[in-house]
Amino acid sequence: MYELKVPKKKELDLIEILFLNERNKNKIVVENNKKIIECYKIASLLKQCGETNEIVDLYLKNSIEDSHEKLENEFNVIFNKMIEKDLSFYENTYDRIVFYSWLCNQSLRTFGVRKKSIERINENNGVDVSSSWAIISVLLASELSLSLFLEKPKRPIFLIENKTDITFLTSDQPIINLDARDDGHSPAHLSWYYPLGPRLALLFPEPGKHEGLYGKVLDSDQVDYLNKRIVYLSHAQFYADSQRTIERYVENDEKFSFN
Description:
Number of strands: 6
Helix content: 40-55%
Oligomer: single chain
Order of helices and strands: HHHHHHEEEEEHEH
Strand order of the largest sheet: 1-5-4-3
């Protein structure tokens, strides 16, 4: 559930510059952004008029969360197909839209991304967007998913199997960009990696990148590389199917070391 904070004027001005400027954006994108922002404007007015958090939560649930719930339910069908190593959904236009939308929303809704993004925006623009990150994350996810959908030709996706004696890790940041920069700045490329289970993962790479990770059997060094990226890009927790696998990465990682 939400607890909506009333955005400050600086936040609203920044949102307008970033998401409603037709000089820098496709008109279709701007019109879509306006529809998303309208929901939050009404919720903000309800808050300013003294309505309780419960009423504001209910409004946002009906206007925004229901769409997230619908998206998750539709993605579950796709997820179950991927688990069965079936990627036929990707040839269906509507399913591809669901796939892009879910990946974008999921990758931007985690606590770790929220914290880092708020810090980065404050550093670059001098604006604390803590009160408006909920809407900014939805807008960013919407724009990114539309951008992916409009790519021509559509970028390929791959399932990668792990038959080594080291299983895949996952974390509180379940979808990571393998091209993320270590200095925290915005990356030039987007190659999503999403572990589906201990032995199977989805790779959604930038065309021409990470070609050594698909189309052949992974070796232990490659699994180690993927797991170390999961650990490095996690916020506070990572998960494995055995204590032995956890210890393999805890011992050599300062963020999680108990020493």
